[in-house]
Amino acid sequence: MSIAMDPPSAANDAQRGVLNIRDFAVHDEAELARAVADAPQGRRDALQFSSMQVEFSRFPGRVVLRDGVVRGPLLGGTIDGAVDYTRDELHLRGTLIPLYGPNNFLGQLPVLGLFMGGRDEGLVGITYEVVGRPGHPVVNVNPLSPLALGVLRKGFEFPAANDGSLDR
User: Fold this and answer.
1) N or C: which terminus of the chain carries fewer CB neighbours within 10 A?
2) Cα dihedral sign for 151, 153, 154, 160?
3) How far apart are the C-alpha atoms of 83 and 167, rounded to whole Å?
4) Domain region containing 21
């Protein structure tokens, strides 16, 4: 794991940075296990990932995530949003991409790849949002989003937080 972050200063209370994690696993997470329900039984309790990268801004009482991408053989995904500890709320959104490697293959092609999901999203994906209190989040998925392939799925994404919290 590596993290690069601006040092705090009196002139700027925001700390911006990038978090990179390589070769990790998520254990016993029911919502992720449901996303890969067709995986072999022995692999459902621990999902392996090859990498994760997310840009972040840390403010007093709040963390904002941008352009996050996680990659794994069974599941990949994107994430954007904010966790606001002063208001005790979170609003995260993104796309889950099942079978990330094969599903994302066409997105790597020049020009055509932009229409097939782009560099970090697959041809087939499931848009999601996580909202509520950090200790008791609610996960919502758009059941129609897998029907919209590639770039058409953008129309099925959950809206970003509209209170300006991503900019502060």
Assistant:
1) N
2) negative
3) 13
4) 2-6+14-156
